[in-house]
Amino acid sequence: MLDDPDLPRPVRGASLNELRREDLDVYAVGDLEERIEALEQEISRTRAALAKKLDGRAAADALFSLPGS
């Protein structure tokens, strides 16, 4: 489905940009609390992905660094 050339590719960060523009005044207190929890979970997931990439970069740097440099 993602390989279908007729479908437009999703723009990176589009979902985040939509969230930023959403009117929060229409949400009840409980809805806002649920939203915060979901966003905190997404932050944790994003931090884990970042840590994994940084670990991979550090491993590559260590592998390709020259001794004594």
Based on helices, strands and strand pairing, what is the structural class? mainly alpha
What is the molecular shape? flat
Helix content: 55-70%
If you average the pLDDT, what whole number results? Answer: 88
Number of helices: 2
The ordered string of helix (H) and strand (E) elements is HH
Strand elements, count: 0
What is the first-to-last residue Cα distance? 48 Å
Largest sheet, described in full? none
Question: Which residues form runs of ≥5 with pLDDT under 50?
Answer: none
User: Roughly what fraction of the amino acids lie in strands?
Assistant: under 5%
Radius of gyration in whole Å, from Cα? 19 Å
Features:
0% strand; 2 helices; 69 residues
Q: What does it look like?
A:
The protein has a domain at 27-62. The protein is built from 2 helices and no strands. It has helices spanning 14-21, 29-64. Helices cover 64% and strands 0% of the residues. The chain is mainly alpha-helical. The chain is flat.
Task: Briefly say what this structure is.
The chain is mainly alpha-helical and 69 residues long. It has helices at 14-21, 29-64.
How do the strands and helices of this protein lay out in sequence?
Layout: H1 14-21, H2 29-64
